[in-house]
Automatic annotation (TrEMBL):
Gene it is expressed from: Pomt1
The organism's taxonomic lineage, starting at the top: Eukaryota, Metazoa, Chordata, Craniata, Vertebrata
Keyword flag Transmembrane: yes
Keyword flag Transmembrane helix: yes
Keyword annotations from UniProtKB, A to Z: Endoplasmic reticulum, Glycosyltransferase, Membrane, Repeat, Transferase, Transmembrane, Transmembrane helix
Range of residues in the leader sequence: none
Principal localisation: endoplasmic reticulum
Membrane protein topology class: Multi-pass membrane protein
Subcellular compartments: Endoplasmic reticulum membrane
Cellular component, GO annotation: endoplasmic reticulum membrane
Enzyme Commission designation: 2.4.1.109
Family affiliation: Belongs to the glycosyltransferase 39 family.
Protein name per UniProt: Protein O-mannosyl-transferase 1
Biological source species: Certhia brachydactyla
Length: 728
C-alpha cells in the first residue's frame, strides 16, 4: 500500500530564463534607491492627502477618477504602519520619520517592474520571435519616463500594469480558443481579462480606452466565429454568454466592489462632505450626523426646518432671510418690491430656520398626533425669526430679470397682496401619496398663483451686491418641462415646534425619538451619488507651469520637473528616452505606410507577403497601433489641464510596435543574407543608442548623482526642456 514511497517524488518545471531575467532586471531598475529622495515628489503631494484620509477613515471625493488606485496606495501605507499624520502641503517637503516612504512607493514600483515581463509575453502571444519579445521588454526596461513614474507614489505605472495584463490575458485566452475552448485555463485567462480591465478603469478612467479596444477586438473575433459552420448555435450562444459574463458582468461587479470597500473604509465625516447631499452626509460618522441624529423623519405642519439646495456647487447653501429689504431701485434703474430679502446662504445660521404652516390654520406648532405633509399639499413657509411668509410675485428678480423676485412679505398697505401659497412636489417620490421626509425627500416648491418654482439661481450665477451681503440670489423660475437641481431642496435640520410664542420658539429645544438616517440610504444610492459627483465635479482648470498639449507629447517637446534638491543640483524629471520615442514614432509611421501599401496591392490581387504574415501584421497592429491610438487621440477632445504623464499608456503601446515593425522588415523586406547582416548591424547600433540615452539621463531619472551646472546644461537637448540650474 505504501509502495509509492520507495521511489522519490520528482517535480519538473519549465523555467523561461528570459522571463526570470527580465523580471529581476525590472525589479532592480524600479526598486533601487526607492526611498530616495525622502521628500514629497510632484503629485505625491496630491495622492498623499488621500492616503492620510484613508488611514484616518475620513471620507473624501477625488474628481480625477475611481477609488481603486487610491486604495492600492493606501494599502502600501497600511502595510508600512502609516498613521496618516503628515501635512501634504508642499512639493519637496521632507518626510517625517512616521512616513513609511518605501512602503508607500512599493506598489507603483512593483507594477512598473512587472510591465517589463508583461511586454515580453505580449509579443510572444502575438506570435513574434523571442528575440523581438526580448527587444520589446528591454525597451520598456530602459524607458526613462516609465522608470521615473513608477518609482513614486503615483498611479500611472499601476494603470499601465493592469492595461498590459488585460491585453496579455486576452491574447492567451484567444490563443487557447481553437484547441482548449471552455477549459480551465481558457476560463482563467478570459476572466482575468475582465478583472484586469475593471482594475484599470478603477485606477483611472483612462483605462476605459484599452477596455473598449479589447471589447471591440473580442466582438470582431466573435463575429468571425459566427461564420464558422463547424460551431453549432448552442456553442455560439455559450461563447457569447461566457464573454458577456467575463468581459462585462464581472468587471461591472468588481467596479462596484471598489466603491463598496471605499465607502466601508471611509465612514467618518470630513472636509469633502459639503458637496454631497444631506442624506449622504448624515450617513457618515460625525459632522452632519451629530446634528441630525434623533430628528423626526416626517415633516409635519408646524415643523421647524432648514432647507438645503440640492445642487451643492460651487457651494452648498440654505434658504435664508433677514430683516433687510430689497433696495427700492437697483443700480440699473429697475425697481423692486422693497420686501424682505430672501437669499441662499452658504453657512449655517439661525436665519435659515423656517416653519411649515397649514394655510387653513393659524398655529405654528405640531399637533398631537402630528399631521404629516404629503406630495401635492399646499403649505406656507414662515421665516422663524421674523415670522414673515415666503412670497413671490410678478416683480423682476434683482440679478435675473427674466425670473420673479422671492421675498418675505411685508404689508405696506398698498395694492400688492401677499402671494404665499406653495405646493410641495416630492421629486424622488415612489407614489403620489408619499410623505415629505427629513433629508431623504428632494422637493420642489411650486408657487400656487404663478406656477413659478423656488430656485437658488445664485448657485449657478453671481452673488448679490453689498446690499445683499454677497449672498446668493433666490428667484421664482417659471415652471418648465424637467428641472434643474438648483430648483430642488431637502430638509436638513428638523424639529417639531412646540411653542406658539415667538420668543419661546426662538430658544426651544427638542428631544424627539431617535432616527438613524444612514439606515435609509442604501449602498447603491450612495454609489450612484458618489459616482455622479466624480463625473460632474470639476475643479477649476488652471494653467500649470508644466502643463502641455497632446501635440507636444509625440516629439517630447515638454518635460516635468518632479523634484529639486534644496541645496545641491540633484533633480528628477519626467523625460522619455529620446531614442526610443523617436523610434516609436518612426515605427508607427512605417506601420501606417506599409499597411496602406499592402491594402492597395491586395486590392489589385497582388499579395506581397503570405496570408499568415498578413494576419499577424494586422492583429499585432490592432493591439499595438490601436492601443496607441485609443490612448492618445481622445486627449485632443478633452478640456482639461494635460501633462506629459498622460501620454505614458499610449507610448507604451507604441514602444511595443517597434519590434513588430523591425521583425517584419527583417523577415519580408531583407531578402538577401547581406541585407539581413546589414540590418542586424543597424539594430545593434540603434539599441546601443537607446542604452546610451538611458545612461545619459539616468541622473535626472533617479535623482542621483547630483550633476554640476555644466552637465545639466548639456542635458538640455531641446530648448523647450526646463532643466533646473541653480545660480552660482
Amino acid at each position: 500500500m505504501l509502495g509509492f514511497l520507495k521511489e522519490p517524488v520528482v517535480v519538473t518545471a519549465k523555467i523561461n530564463v528570459n522571463l526570470v531575467a527580465l523580471t529581476v532586471m525590472g525589479l532592480m531598475s524600479r526598486l533601487w534607491g526607492l526611498c530616495y529622495p525622502r521628500a514629497v515628489v510632484f503629485d505625491e503631494v496630491y495622492y498623499g492627502q488621500f492616503v492620510s484620509l484613508y488611514m484616518k477613515r475620513i471620507f473624501f471625493v477625488d474628481d480625477s477618477g475611481p477609488p481603486f488606485g487610491h486604495m492600492l496606495l493606501a494599502l502600501g501605507g497600511y502595510l508600512g504602519g502609516f498613521d496618516g499624520n503628515f501635512l501634504w502641503n508642499r512639493i519637496g517637503a521632507e518626510y517625517s520619520m512616521n512616513v513609511p516612504v518605501w512602503s508607500l512607493r512599493l506598489l507603483p514600483a512593483l507594477a512598473g517592474a512587472l510591465c517589463v515581463p508583461l511586454a515580453y509575453q505580449i509579443l510572444v502571444e502575438l506570435h513574434f520571435s523571442h528575440c523581438a519579445a526580448l527587444g520589446a521588454a528591454l525597451l520598456i526596461l530602459l524607458e526613462n519616463s516609465l522608470i521615473t513614474q513608477s518609482r513614486f507614489m503615483l498611479l500611472e505605472s499601476i494603470l499601465i500594469f493592469f492595461i498590459l495584463l488585460a491585453v496579455l490575458s486576452y491574447l492567451k485566452f484567444y490563443n487557447l480558443q481553437k484547441h482548449s475552448a471552455f477549459s480551465g485555463s481558457w476560463w482563467f485567462w478570459l476572466v482575468l481579462t475582465g478583472v484586469a480591465c475593471s482594475c484599470a478603469v478603477g485606477v483611472k478612467y483612462m483605462g476605459l480606452f484599452t477596455y473598449m479596444l479589447l471589447l471591440a477586438t473580442a466582438g470582431l473575433h466573435f463575429w468571425h466565429m459566427i461564420g464558422d459552420q463547424n460551431l453549432s448555435n448552442v456553442s455560439l450562444l455559450c461563447h457569447f454568454l461566457a464573454r458577456g459574463l467575463a468581459l462585462i458582468i464581472i468587471p461591472m461587479g468588481l467596479y462596484l466592489s471598489f466603491f463598496y470597500v471605499h465607502l466601508a473604509l471611509l465612514y467618518r465625516s470630513g472636509p469633502h462632505d459639503q458637496i454631497m447631499t444631506s442624506a449622504f452626509q448624515a450617513s457618515l460618522e460625525g459632522g452632519l450626523a451629530r446634528i441630525t441624529q434623533g430628528q423626526p423623519l416626517e415633516v409635519a405642519y408646524g415643523s421647524q426646518i432648514t432647507l438645503r439646495n440640492v445642487l451643492g456647487k460651487p457651494m452648498q447653501c440654505w434658504l435664508h432671510s433677514h430683516t433687510n429689504t430689497y433696495p427700492i431701485r437697483y443700480e440699473n434703474g429697475r425697481g423692486s418690491s422693497h420686501q424682505q430679502q430672501v437669499t441662499c446662504y452658504p453657512f449655517k445660521d439661525v436665519n435659515n430656520w423656517w416653519i411649515v404652516k397649514d394655510p387653513g390654520m393659524q398655529q405654528l406648532v405640531v399637533s398631537n398626533p402630528p399631521r404629516p405633509v404629503r406630495h401635492g399639499h399646499i403649505v406656507q413657509l414662515v421665516h422663524g425669526i421674523t415670522t414673515r411668509y415666503l412670497n413671490t410675485h410678478d416683480v423682476a428678480a434683482p440679478l435675473s430679470p427674466h425670473s420673479q423676485e422671492v421675498s418675505c412679505y411685508i404689508d405696506y398697505n398698498i395694492s400688492m397682496p401677499a402671494q404665499n401659497l406653495w405646493r410641495v412636489e416630492i421629486v424622488n417620490r415612489e407614489s403620489d401619496t408619499d410623505v415629505w421626509k427629513t433629508i431623504l425627500s428632494e422637493v420642489r416648491f411650486v408657487h400656487v398663483n404663478t406656477s413659478a418654482v423656488l430656485k437658488a439661481s445664485g448657485v449657478i450665477g453671481a452673488s448679490l451686491p453689498e446690499w445683499g451681503y454677497r449672498q446668493l440670489e433666490v428667484v421664482g423660475e417659471k415652471l418648465s418641462k424637467g428641472y434643474h437641481q438648483s430648483m430642488v431642496w431637502n430638509v436638513e435640520e428638523h424639529r417639531y415646534g412646540k411653542s406658539q410664542e415667538q420668543k419661546e420658539r426662538e430658544v426651544e429645544l427638542h428631544s424627539p425619538t431617535q432616527m438613524d438616517i444612514s439606515k435609509n440610504l442604501s449602498f447603491m444610492a450612495k454609489f450612484t451619488e458618489l459616482q455622479w459627483k466624480i463625473l460632474t465635479l470639476k475643479n477649476e482648470d488652471t494653467e500649470h507651469k508644466y502643463s502641455s498639449s497632446a501635440l507636444d507629447w509625440i516629439t517630447m517637446d515638454t518635460n516635468i520637473a518632479y523634484w529639486l534638491h534644496p541645496t545641491s543640483g540633484a533633480q528628477i524629471h519626467l523625460l522619455g528616452n529620446v531614442a526610443t520615442w523617436a523610434s516609436a514614432n518612426t515605427a508607427a509611421l512605417v506601420y501606417l505606410c506599409l499597411s496602406l501599401w499592402y491594402l492597395l496591392r491586395r486590392r489589385r490581387k497582388i499579395y506581397d507577403i503570405p496570408e499568415d504574415a498578413w494576419q499577424l501584421w494586422v492583429s499585432a497592429g490592432g493591439i499595438c497601433a490601436g492601443g496607441w491610438a485609443v490612448n492618445y487621440l481622445p486627449f485632443f477632445l478633452m478640456e482639461k489641464t494635460l501633462f506629459l504623464y498622460h501620454y505614458l499608456p499610449a507610448v507604451t503601446f507604441q514602444i511595443l510596435l517597434i519590434p513588430v515593425v523591425l521583425q517584419h522588415l527583417s523577415d519580408h523586406l531583407c531578402r538577401s543574407v547581406l541585407l539581413k547582416s546589414m540590418f542586424s548591424a543597424l539594430l545593434v547600433g540603434w539599441f546601443s543608442s537607446v542604452y546610451f540615452v538611458y545612461c545619459t539621463f539616468s541622473p535626472v531619472t533617479y535623482g542621483q548623482p547630483a550633476l554640476p551646472p555644466t552637465e545639466l546644461r548639456a542635458l538640455r537637448w531641446k530648448d523647450t526642456w526646463n532643466i533646473l540650474i541653480r545660480k552660482q
